[in-house]
Amino acid sequence: QQQVKQSPQSLIVQKGGISIINCAYENTAFDYFPWYQQFPGKGPALLIAIRPDVSEKKEGRFTISFNKSAKQFSLHIMDSQPGDSATYFCAAPLTDDKIIFGKGTRLHILP
Amino acid sequence: GAGVSQSPRYKVAKRGQDVALRCDPISGHVSLFWYQQALGQGPEFLTYFQNEAQLDKSGLPSDRFFAERPEGSVSTLKIQRTQQEDSAVYLCASSPTNGLATIYEQYFGPGTRLTVT
């Protein structure tokens, strides 16, 4: 069974701090690693994703770092805001049309 | 524009009852997915449609689960003889693309929370 191992399970960060969530994967169909953000009562929404041609991707306050040799990737949220409080899921492609998700990290930003 | 909608948003069923969950994808989207999300867990793949064809149903947990998309638009997930372990949020996602590109662009609905008592 392919897995994506995500940590930590929950995270509390002060407003303005850096939130870091990590994921480790086993073999994947190809290198594409998205992060999803989910608010209570809503479905997940794609936040940011990285493809194999770069080791880092930045979009605003959100950055993905990718370490192919270690089979790890991480999400960094800079200048964390209370509105960032949500559950974050990393994911990896199991096949061409199937994604496997991590178990999620519940992030809480203290005001 | 309108996103993916699902109905009902909440469903309570007694053990042994049959339920039907509906998904209205974004208009024109070719691909449609169903996921099951248990409390405190990530979504788990159930099945995938390309237009009306069900191309992958490997994630359906048992033969009590059945999904259809007869006209390539609205989809229904049916669960027969519900069990307590079926309690979860059922998410639907659609994508304007197919094949390799579907995983790049999936739009999720809000889900249906099913509680089996």
Account of the 3D structure:
The complex is a heterodimer of chains A (111) and B (117). With 111 residues, chain A is mainly β. In chain A, 0% of the residues lie in helices and 58% in strands. In chain A, the strands form two sheets. In chain A, strands 2, 4, 5, 9, 10 and 11 form a six-stranded mixed beta sheet that branches. In chain A, strands 1-3-8-7-6 form a five-stranded antiparallel beta sheet, with no helix packed on it. The mean pLDDT of chain A is 92. Chain B has one domain: Immunoglobulins (Immunoglobulin-like). Chain B contains no helices and eleven strands. In chain B, the strands form two sheets. In chain B, strands 2, 4, 5, 6, 9, 10 and 11 form a seven-stranded mixed beta sheet that branches. Classes of the chains: A mainly beta (111), B mainly beta (117).
Integer count of domains of chain A: 1
Looking at the structure, what is the overall shape of chain B? globular
The helix-and-strand class of chain A reads mainly beta
Derived structural class of chain B: mainly beta
Mean pLDDT of chain A: 92
CATH architecture of chain B: Sandwich
Order of helices and strands of chain B: EEEEEEEEEEE
Architecture (CATH level 2) name of chain A: Sandwich
Measured by residues with Cβ under 8 Å of the partner chain's Cβ, the largest interface is:
A-B, 24 and 27 residues
Element order, helices and strands of chain A? EEEEEEEEEEE
Question: What Rg of chain A do the Cα atoms give?
Answer: 13 Å
CATH topology name of chain A: Immunoglobulin-like
Topology:
The complex is a heterodimer of chains A (111) and B (117).
Chain A: E1 4-7, E2 10-14, E3 19-25, E4 33-38, E5 45-50, E6 56-59, E7 62-67, E8 72-77, E9 86-95, E10 98-101, E11 105-110
Parallel strand pairs in A: 2-11
Antiparallel strand pairs in A: 1-3, 3-8, 4-5, 4-9, 6-7, 7-8, 9-10, 9-11
Chain B: E1 5-7, E2 10-13, E3 19-24, E4 31-37, E5 44-50, E6 53-56, E7 65-68, E8 75-79, E9 88-95, E10 107-108, E11 112-116
Parallel strand pairs in B: 2-11
Antiparallel strand pairs in B: 1-3, 3-8, 4-5, 4-9, 5-6, 7-8, 9-10, 9-11
